[in-house]
Amino acid sequence: MNQNTVPLLASLYIETSESSLDGRMTPLLMQGFPAEPERRVTWNNWMRPPFNQWGFRNLARLRPSIDVEAGGGPVSVLKEAPQALDELHFDSECGLSVSVIDHLVASQTDAFLVMQGDTVLFERYFNGQRPRDRHVMFSVTKSLIGTLGEQLVCDGFLNPQLPAAYYVPELLGSAFGDATVRQLFDMAVGIDYSEVYDDPYSESSQYGYACGFQPAPAQYAQFESLYQYLPSLKKRGNHGGFFHYVTATTEALAWVMERASGKACNQLLQDIWSQLGCERDGYFMADPWGRSVAGAGFNATLRDMARFGRLLANDGRHKGQQLLSTETVARICVGSDPVIYAKNSEFSKWTPGASYRSQWYVFNDHSQATMAGGIHGQYLFVDKPSGVVIVKQSSLTEAVGPFDADSVRMLRAIAAHLTH
After folding, report:
1. Which of 213, 242, 271 is the last residue of a domain?
2. CATH number of the CATH domain containing 115
3. What is the DSSP letter of 232?
4. Which of helix, strand or coil describes residue 414?
5. Is 151 left (phi over 0), alpha (psi -120 to 50) or beta?
6. Minimal CA–CA distance to 408: which of 367, 380, 385, 368?
7. How far apart are CA 180 and CA 184, in angstroms?
């Protein structure tokens, strides 16, 4: 965090605290038949405030989607033992001692849950979100894909040492073709790509056009699907030995997984999701060719995301069934080289002490704690030793902003509080 950001963050906390006292509310969106233009959420504006507050929990009403069915079994009952975690304080990057509830409000949280074992300790909904609403998780999706990929390795379908083009010949000559599957897992692909969300000309924005997140400007309309877009990306430098966060790398991994297993990613996830006792189907946003958007497109309820996190906390077991192998979970939780991760200053400031392994952030300085994170404030945090699982769904104004590092500090403070 630079010096200019510190006073900005402090002022944002103070401003939010004052505005919450005077009862100001966001205007109701999508009211009327049709809604008035200033309250209408569309494909063009759903990712921009204030429209994102409605759009993030109603994506299936705006874009094609692919269901991940909950299955026909009973819903997994979660016990409740409420704790006053809203008054727990943590040290903000700006030097303030901030309460959990003040951070949740300031960081535009839509839903927040803390669970330990099978017991919900804290659960809150904001901004009109309800328990059965399914919220887009953005890049938390990557961690689901990484988990499924590691399970394919355990099941013998996927060899992490082979190049991506072994499974997907269409990737020959692209940035991904001669990268190993392991390098795809760990974001170590040498690629000419910038992950800058507010630049309409960046490669990450071009990715968004190809997968259908946003209508494509004319100059970027040549790609009808991610299947067309991914082979167009070019290599830069060598692979391995670094961490370069690229959403398209997850999509290349997902394509490799599809070819290796003969199953689409939504089917791979459904094999697990349908046995977790979920309350609702999850769903992927579909790209224009009907492919699951594997890097950023999964949507689910707050509690169902917690159920997936609990599966990892339980070493892949649910109600006596081994839905994921213990080896899959162990391979994720061992993490990677934190020295490599620390060289990426942007990410290491956000998640100090972490490494990146199998599409998860792994805190090497805290035994076996893993985190999935997405833009606009989406989180799934799993602390295996204590069994603590935390889910945060948000509609932050900025894709990446001043509250992000404090969100991680808050998650870790809650886990530490419940561990002692």
Report:
1. 242
2. 3.40.710.10
3. G
4. helix
5. alpha
6. 380
7. 7
| Mean residue pLDDT across the chain | 94
Please list, in sequence order, all residues whose beta carbon lies within 8 angstroms of the beta carbon of residue 137, skipping any fewer than 6 positions away. 298, 299, 300, 305, 372, 374, 378, 380, 393
Distance CA 114, CA 67 (A): 26
What is each CA distance from 261 to 163, 183, 225, 256, in whole angstroms?
16, 19, 21, 9
Q: Return the pLDDT at 219.
A: 86
CA angle 215, 221, 225 (to 5 degrees): 85
CA–CA separation, 403 and 249 (whole Å): 26
Give 195's DSSP letter: -
Query: Mind giving me the DSSP string for 242-297?
Result: S----HHHHHHHHHHHHHHHSS-HHHHHHHHHTTTT-SS-EEEEB-TTS-B-TTT-
28-68: pLDDT as tens digits: 999 999 999 999 999 999 999 999 999 999 999 999 999 99
Phi, psi of 372 (to 5 degrees): -110, 135
| Helix (H) / strand (E) containing 235 | none
**Cis, peptide link before residue 50, omega less than 30° from 0:** yes
Give strand ranges (E) for 301-413: 317-318, 321-322, 354-357, 360-363, 369-374, 378-383, 388-394
Q: Residue 176: what residue type? A: F
Among candidates 359, 366, 372, which has minimal Cα distance to 385? 366
Residue 88: give the domain boundaries: 63-149+259-419
pLDDT in tens, 93-147: 999 999 999 999 999 999 999 999 999 999 999 999 999 999 999 999 999 999 9
The tally of domains found in the chain comes to 2
Give a yes or no: residue 53 inside a domain: no
Pull the structure tokens for residue 356: 């990146």
Q: Enter the tokens of residue 346.
A: 């942007």
